[in-house]
Amino acid sequence: MTIWTLDEQAAGRLTGIARKWYDQMREGLVPSISLPTRTKQNIAYDDASEVWKYGDRESTRSAGTAKSALHLLKMAYVIWFLKTQIRESRSSTLRELYYISEGWKKAKFQAQDESNFLIEDLEILTDMQREAFHLRPEEDGATVFGPLELREMTRRGKREIHCQDDVGEAGYQIPTNIETIELLRHDAKFVIAIETGGMYARLIENGFDSDHQAILVHLKGQPARSTRRILNRINSQFGLPVAVFTDGDPWSYRIFASVAYGAIKSAHISELLATPKAQFIGVQPSDIRDYNLPSDQLNEKDVAALKSELSDPRFASGYWKEQIGLQLKLNLKSEQQAFAAKGLDFVTKEYLPARLSDMGIL
Amino acid sequence: MSLADDLAAQQRSISVAEFFERNKHLLGFDSPTRGIITTIKEAVDNALDACEEAGVLPDIYLSIRKQDRDIYRIIVEDNGPGIVPAQVPYVFGKLLYGSRFHQIRQSRGQQGIGISAAVLYAQLTSGLPTLIISRTGPDQPAHLFSVRIDIETNEPDVVREEKVEWDRTHGTRIQIEFRSTLAAKKRLIEYLKYSSIVNPHARIMLEMDDETVLFDRVSDEVIACPESIKPHPHGIEIGQLRRMLHAGSGTLEQFLTGTFSRVGKKTAEEMCRGAGLSCTAEAHTLSPEEQRRLVETMQAVKVPPPPVSRCLSPIGEDLITRGLEKEFSMDFIRARTRPGSVFSGHPFIIEAAIGYGGKLPPEGNAQILRFANRVPLMYQQGACAITTSVAGITWKNYGISQAGLPTGPLLILVHVASTSVPFTSESKDAIASIPEIEKEIVLALQDLGRDLKVFLSRRDRNRLQEDRARAVCAILPDLAAKVSEIVECELPDISTIEGRIMRKLVVRKRVNEGVVTLEARNYTDTAASLSLYTISRQPGEAASPPPDFTTEHEGEFTQVWQVSLGAGEVWQTCYGGSGRGMIEVRGVDPRTLVLVDQDDDMDT
């Protein structure tokens, strides 16, 4: 799909929402809107797509009360604004949208949470992503380094980029709307998504991408939507295995889970964002033991998080039960950069090759 | 000499007056600020009691004037029955002298301490005697007394006595001067305000330096003076019984039936039998041991409760409501008078009222007005059984938030009327914790709470409707405009939706390019007729239909349309102009009316 038809589709679907209200009003009906209930109770695991999605519960807002009428009015203003923005080929950030609403009198947002939430509602209603509305999140997309060639439709025309040859030391910066990217070809065997910048730089410096034909993706902590989306696309388009390399603590396991299974906040687009086939490299609790890694004691919050993961269906496999059980027993956690204690080359020469072979990737 | 002898030389009796001189706080004279309130309170209580006894509508005049530095002159004048000259020195110049102490009925003052304590306080702080004028009738001369209290002997010391001219035909005037401050002026006015609520038949006027405050009466009905009753056997104690037996004559049976209320021949026989005494024994010959047995049996034998209606004078639900309405502006007032009840042989009645909304402060603890025998209790709220009873109720059940005490725009009034109000101390600030009284207070307030809940939920329902109306009137037109802009179609007519949602009478003024449109839509299910007023600096040009009449006053034009609208009907008029000015609708219940002036900026 080209960027132009994408624009048309986005503007068309947004207008469709307003059209429905217009028709309701013409028929003498109170305008209303139905949305899935966005609570934890209404998130269900979808066996077919192996991701977390919203369930069947819906709530309807009708303009019969002041509060809901105001909500619909705000939505109408946002639709109007987005439609104009798409037509004029402009874009704005979520924060800018919040400030723009200052001039909307009654329809002004009280807090940015409110406008962010409303945008998510629009994503659900249109079954499109906010990037299609020319809305950018605040945070940068992450970076990619490796034998991958892609085409980006920039403001100044199409650019074909090789993610090793045409980029600097830090790699290729993923744009916020990756629907403008076309993945062309690759010379890779697998993808490694890495939590910390230090480890990402270590792998580049040690030439891991060339030595093992690996595409390196920097997650930057809890990954942004665009980062998760590109992992999903590389995986589905090229059929490359995706492995996730994080610190060895409960919070990092959740980073893996959001890559693999999706997050509650974006459950309406889990199918686009999650990579259910992603595999976890480590740091595994058993690595802490086997490699005798430098480590810290678990604190109370770590222990509570681990225990809640034990009852989380996303971690319901035998592998995770064993690893989490072991970690609780060891009462230790380690960062991925702790491998430096064994020398700067240890992680690329010893640990990763061994672990990736175990996983059947190498 | 032995130590005992030494001590004996120092031991001597203490006069009551001397005792209270040292223990001023027991009587409410612990500070100059409080002294002024206590004095006014005692004098007003006495005046109200006296008027009640004489069956006249109280007319009380109060004056507080600063004399010199911190000396204040206080004058309290009433139109009561007056006091016979021979008694005046004792009433004002002797502590513990009074007419009501030995009577069993509801009255404000009881022990005869209050006003003479003020006289004592004056004497101690300013050194001045108290001036009293009293007159018992039109054919009697008025007498003026100048009185002090002899602290050693607790006997009155009359400095001066003479006949004087006085404009009142009967009544009493007291002029007292002591060291004080008016720091608690607010509380003093509060005290009078509260007094006036529970004494709706009284007229009280207060003059202070340059300020006059009048608390007028709302009822011209003289309240019936409660009658005295005989003591009830369940409230009797050994010392009291002993005194009564000594004074009594005749047989024990005659004594019991004649001295106590609700004791007939049968009950008297049961008491005698229970105590192992003969009915025919001479009452005054009982031995101390026999007296002890008798008092015990008297508590144990079942006796009907004392007659409540005669000895108590509750204010009544109607008068409490009127009294509160007079002093507070509230959206909801309801009062309840409970049936009479008894604790330890003392009859009592609880009355309560709840007020909500209006101009009451919307936040903070509820205002609690406490009264005992029609006297406001001003101090020690926390120590009072009324307060603990109020705090013990789960107000959330009645739609009121609570943090210990209930909070919000709430007023709670509790009146305890009894032949013997159980105060925690002689300064009569707080009611002691008596389970029977607390239970009655809770029952009265719960009953009122249920009424309040009904009121609040009805009000909330009205608010919900209001909310809907606002959604339609303020937001839907904007929504319609924005939506038609997005879909690039003409503005839809949303009046059907308005009707669907609101079920109200909508009067709307719109201004568009120099044309003012006034519109009335009756979405209710009943017909309505209303008068529509517009007041502006310009006359409406070529109104169609024209107003029924137009007036001009100092450049302001008032236009009036008389409109009759059946259920579901719409009326409209248009005229040229800017539409500035006011719009008003009369003849319609404001609760079913929605007035939309789109000239106004709806944004806040």
Question: How would you describe this structure in keywords?
Answer:
heterodimer, A: 362 residues, alpha/beta, Arc Repressor Mutant, subunit A, Dna Topoisomerase Vi A Subunit, Chain: A, domain 2, 2 domains, 6-stranded mixed sheet, 3-stranded antiparallel sheet, 19% strand, globular, B: 604 residues, alpha+beta, Heat Shock Protein 90, Helicase, Ruva Protein, domain 3, Ribosomal Protein S5, domain 2, 4 domains, 8-stranded mixed sheet, 25 strands, elongated, disordered C terminus
What number is the mean pLDDT of chain A? 89
Number of helices of chain B: 14
Helix share, percent of chain B:
25-40%
**For the CA atoms, what is the radius of gyration of chain B?**
34 Å
User: Poorly predicted ranges of chain B (pLDDT <50, ≥5 residues)?
Assistant: 600-604
Taking the sheet with the most strands of chain A, its summary is: 6 strands, mixed
Quaternary organization: heterodimer
| Termini Cα gap of chain B | 91 Å
Kindly estimate the percentage of residues of chain B that lie in beta strands according to DSSP.
Answer: 25-35%
| Count of extended strands of chain A | 17
Helix content of chain A: 40-55%
> What is the assigned CATH homologous superfamily of the largest domain in chain B?
Histidine kinase-like ATPase, C-terminal domain
Structural domains of chain A: how many = 2
What's the overall geometry of chain B? elongated
Unreliable stretches of chain A (pLDDT < 50, length at least 5) are: none
Number of alpha- plus pi-helical segments of chain A: 13
Q: What is the tally of beta strands of chain B?
A: 25
What kind of sheet is the major sheet of chain B?
8 strands, mixed
Enter the CATH topology name of the largest domain in chain A.
Dna Topoisomerase Vi A Subunit, Chain: A, domain 2
